[in-house]
Design goal:
Elements lengths: L7 H8 L6 H15 L7 H28 L1
Helix pairs in contact: 1-3, 2-3
Length: about 70
């Protein structure tokens, strides 16, 4: 990978320094689903924006679930 390219995984890791509480992550995921539900499938920028936002929310939700499993 070149210096000009940053992976989506790295972006999610930076956005998520520690796992949020599960309820917070779930609400954030729901909010993002609502926000991007009407994105125009024919608009490349909207699709990329929605995909990245939803990926980061999913990453946070999985981290919250894993953290919750570790505390039980």
């Amino acid at each position: 990978m070149t210096a000009d390219v940053q992976s989506l995984r790295d972006t999610a890791d930076v956005a998520l320094q520690e796992a949020p509480p599960f309820d917070t992550a779930l609400q954030a995921a729901r909010d993002s689903l609502t926000e991007y539900a009407t994105a125009d499938i024919h608009d490349h920028h909207e699709m990329i924006t929605a995909a990245v936002a939803l990926y980061i929310r999913l990453h946070g939700l999985v981290a919250a679930l894993e953290a919750q499993e570790g505390t039980q």
